[in-house]
Amino acid sequence: MAKVIVASMALPVVAGILISMLLAAAITCLVQEERHIYLVLMEGVALAFHEEASMDQLSSTLHPNREVSKAHAKHLLSFHDLFLQSTLETGSYSKLHSYKHIINGFSVHTTPSQAERLRGSPRVKFVEKDRGVKMMTTYTPEFLNLPKGIWAQEGGDTRAGDGVVIGFIDSGINPFHPSFAYDPMQPFTSNLSHFGGACETGPLFPPSSCNGKIVAARYFSAGAKAAANLDPSKDFLSPFDADGHGSHVASIAAGNAGVPVVVNSFCYGKASGMAPGARIAVYKAVYPSVGTLADVIAAIDSAVLDGVDILSLSVGPNEPPEDTLTFLSIFDISLLFARKAGVFVVQAAGNNGPASSSVVSFNPWSLSVAASTTNRGYPSSLLLGNGSILNGVGLSGPSFGNGSVWHKLVLAKDAVKINGTSPKTPEYIEECQHPEVLDPNRVSGSIIICTFSAGFYNGTSTLAGIIDTAKTLGMEGFVLVANPNYGDYIAEAIPFAVSGIMIPRVDDAKVILQYYEQLTKRDEKGTGAEFAALAAVGEGRLASFTGRSPVVSRFSSRGPDIIDIHKNLADVLKPDILAPGHQIWAAWSPISAAEPMLKGHTFALLSGTSMSTPHVAGIAALIKHYNPLWTPSMIASAITTTSSKYDNLGEPMMAEGSEINSLLPSTPFDYGAGFVNPNRAIDPGLVLSSEYVDFIGFLCSLPNISTDAVIAATGEQCNHPFANPFSLNLPSISLSALRGSVSVRRTFMNVGNTTETYLGSVVPPNGTKVYLRPTWFTISPQGTQDLEIQFSVVQPKQNFTFGEIVLTGNLNHIVRITLSVLAVSV
C-alpha cells in the first residue's frame, strides 16, 4: 500500500521528502565528522581483579553471571554512564564501549574540546586518541593513493576528471542524491561540445535532474514492457533509479567528493568517486522487475550517439551465447562499434567465481574488470556470559547501548509458541522469519539465536526477515549462527537497524550453542523452561585497516577466456584488470525496490564486479582528463601495463578459493594484468594500440570461423586477417595451444615527452623458453618499436603457466606484458 501511495504522490512532494531525508542525514554527519574516538582509562579496579570476583581456578575465566561479578559489572557500567553525563555536554558524545574485564574505562566518540574535559577530570588516568581508526567511506580513493597523486595533478578532488563524460547503462540514477549535486559556486570549467545528450523526464525525474553534473538521462523500456508486466510502483518509466544499483555504480566512478555517509543515524565518513569532476550520462535499461538485452543494446547505441567518452557496464549477459561465438554476439558487436566510435568500454567480468572460465566479458575491445578486497573491514563480536568472545560480521551498534550489559539468550526453536499451529519447517522454527510463531514473553528484550538453515541456503529466507521479527517482538538483538548440516556460510557486512551479528563458522556456532544448553533448563518434553545464558553484541560499525590486500574476491569470475559455449579457449587474456569490488560504500536509492533491508537508506555497502567496474571507469576518466588525445586502446594499455601483481605485504597476490576462509596463490586468470595503479597509468612510458581494423583482422583469424559470419556480424570483409588470433596487438599474450615454437609481434609507442632507452627481460612460463628481439631499444617521443617474442615448448604441461615480459626504461618507466601459455607439445 505504501508503494502505491508514493507512486501516486505529486512529484514535488516526493522530491521534497527525499531531499529532506538527505539534508537530515548530512546535518547528522556534519556534527559527527569533527569527532574522534578516544580511549579513556579510569581509576578503579576492573572486574577480573575485583577482590570479590569469582574465577574458575582451572581456566582463569571470569563468571560474570554470578551475583557478585554481575553487581560489580553493573556498578562499573553505571559509573561510566554517570561520569560521562556529569562531565560532558549532552549530545556531544556517544559511548562506544565500556571496558570492565581487564581494564576499567571506556571508548567515546566526541570532539577534541570534550576530550580535554575528560583529561581534566580527577577520576581519569589518561585519554588517548584512537590512531587505528580512520573515518573514511568509499575509502578506495585513499587505498589507490589518488588524493596526493593524480587528483593533485588535475586540480584537486572537485576537478579531477573534468570535461570527461561517463555513460552508465544500468538501473538509472537518484538525481536528488548529494553525490550527484551541482554546486554553482564551483562551476565546471571544461565545455562539453563533443557531447549532445538529452534529458528525458518522468516520474521522480523532473527537468532539473539534469543539473550540470548529470548531463543527460534517458530510459529504455520497450524490451522490459515486452518481457514482463511492469509494476508502476517501482518500474518507473523515467531515468529514476528505484533499485539503487545504478546510483551506486555512478557514484563510485564519478560521485562528488566528500559526501557524508549516514546509515541508521551513524556516520561512516565521506564518500568520493574516482573522478569527482567527471560528468554523468544516465541510460536506464534495467528495471526492478526485468532487464533485457534489447534495452541494454538500445542504451549502448544511444550513449555512443550522444558522445560519451567512457561507457561503464555493470550489467550484461550472464552466460555465453548459445548459437554463435562469444565475440560475435550482438551485445559484443555493439561494444565493438562503441569502440570504433572512440568510446572506452569497461565491462564487469561477472560474479560466477571462483569457477574456471566463468568470465562473462569475452571480447578484446572491452576492458573487463575483476574484483578484489581492500584492507578495510568491520569487525564485530559476540560476548557470552562465560567470558567467551566470538568474532562475527554485522554493521550494528552494541546491544548494551540501552544501559544494560547482558541480555537473555534464547534459541528460536525454544521460543516457538507451545500451542502454535505453524508449520514445523526451518523457516518457521529456526530462521526467525515469522514473528507470529514466536512467544513474545520469551523473546522480548532478549537476544535470539537464529539458524542458517534451508531457507537461507535456498535464498528464500532473509536477514530482513530476522530484523523485522526482532523489531516486531521488541528483541534486543539477534545472532545468525551457522548450521552444521550446511557448513560455514559466507557473511558480508551490511548495516542492521537493530543490534545483530552473523556467526558464519560452524565451530563458533557450536561454542555458542554449547554454552546455551549448559544454562538452559528443559522440561520432560525437552522444551526450554528457564533461560540463564547471557550475551551482548559488541560495536560493529567501526572500521579497521589491517590484513592482506588486495585479495581476489571469491565471487569474481575467472578465466581463461572462451570462444564459444563449449568452452573452447580463446587467445585473449580475461579478465583484464583487478580493482576494488568488495564492501564498497556508495550512493543508493531510498526506494530500494529489490532489497528491503536497504529501504530508506541513501548509501549502501555492496560487493561485486559491478562495483569494481566503475572504479576503472572513473580511473579511465582521470587518464582521459590528463591525456585528452589518447584513444581507448592507449588508455587500456596504460591501465594494464602499469598494474601490480603484489599485495600490501610485498608478496604475490592471493585469491579467495571455493572453501570459506581459504586463500590460494592467484594467477592472471584471477586478476588479469594485475591490480590497477592509476597514478602510474597516467604516465606509462609505452602503450600498445589496437583499433577497429585490427579487431576485424582478429575476428577473421579465429579458428573454424567463416568470413560470412564476420561479414554478417560486422559488415566488414576479411581482407586482412591475422595469421593467428594472438597477433592482435594487445598488452598481454595468451597462447591457448602452443605447439613447438611460434613468433609473436608486439608494437609499442612512446607516449612520453623524451627519448628513452628500454631494456627487456623475461620471466618465462613454466615449460617454455622465451626470447626477445631486440633485447633493448631506444625510442623517441611518438615513435614506435616492434618487439619479436619467440616462444618454444621445452616441456608440455597439463595446465596454463604464466610469466611476463618487463621493459625497464632509463627514465623509470616500467612496462609489463603478462604471458599465459598452455604448452601442448614439443
UniProtKB/TrEMBL annotation:
Domain Peptidase S8/S53, residue spans: 161-646
Main location: secreted
Catalytic residues of the enzyme: D170 (charge relay system), H245 (charge relay system), S610 (charge relay system)
Location of this chain's protein in the cell: Secreted
Keyword terms of this UniProt record: Glycoprotein, Hydrolase, Protease, Secreted, Serine protease, Signal
Domain Inhibitor I9: residue ranges: 69-135
Single Gene Ontology MF annotation: serine-type endopeptidase activity
GO biological process: proteolysis
GO cellular component: extracellular region
Transmembrane found in the keyword field: no
PROSITE patterns: SUBTILASE (PS51892), SUBTILASE_ASP (PS00136), SUBTILASE_HIS (PS00137), SUBTILASE_SER (PS00138)
Subtilisin-like protease fibronectin type-III domain: residues covered: 728-821
Family: Belongs to the peptidase S8 family.
Name the record gives this protein: Subtilisin-like protease SBT2.4
